Amino acid sequence: MSTALEQSHQTRNMKNQKGKVLCKKCKSNQIVANKRGYSFRKMFNSLLITIIICFALAIFFPSLDNVEGPGNLNIIGFILFYIGFPVAIIRGFIGRSDIVNGCMNCGNKWIAGGK
Fold it and tell me: pTM (2 decimals)?
């Protein structure tokens, strides 16, 4: 019963607002839309995962430390420098042009068009 009442209240508010965007947290209409930009969090997470994989390879396969790769790097160093860093940098660019709405009242942020 209460969900039907909430839904009718939400549709009534939407009709009254006539297409205005409201904050989902505080219901304020002071909303700013910006592009997301470069994601350092995604970059550092990718780099951290690569470093963890390299340490796991060094611990579980110690024979990989003795194999010389290009530029006098062993296999683990090759994975980290030639594969890990470029992948981490490129991963930071993923989603940089997404629009992010931000509330000027409470600071809540959400992706535009998402539910």
Answer: 0.59
